[in-house]
Amino acid sequence: TFVVGREQQKVFAHRCVLACRCQAFQGMLSQEPVGSEGSTGSIPPQGPFILGNVQPEVFLAVIEFLYTNSVTLNSRIVLEVLTSSVEYGLQDLCQLCVKFIKDTLSVEQVCEALQVSVTPVVQDFQPTL
To answer: pTM value?
Structure first.
């Protein structure tokens, strides 16, 4: 269970799917509980995991990609999904976002797209916009 955004929307996902598809989630989901002494038989935390800095719609797009290897994007969320794809190390999702941006870039979005493209982490991770 994830609690996402200011709205504190609950998002449910299968731990095994997330851990198999994404190293960032694998690390998050396999952390030892606070106060444990490193016993090998300890049960990983069950959540909920609080993700207050991401919009629910953006997180749901990431989850959709992890489950289906495709994603439904729109101009309102694509730049945030791109940023999340970089944060979670999802190269294929990053490439889908870049393709969507290239195909749909408008005058209204150009400044925001430029700002995202000059972020050092984004530059190192994906092709230029």
So the answer is: 0.75
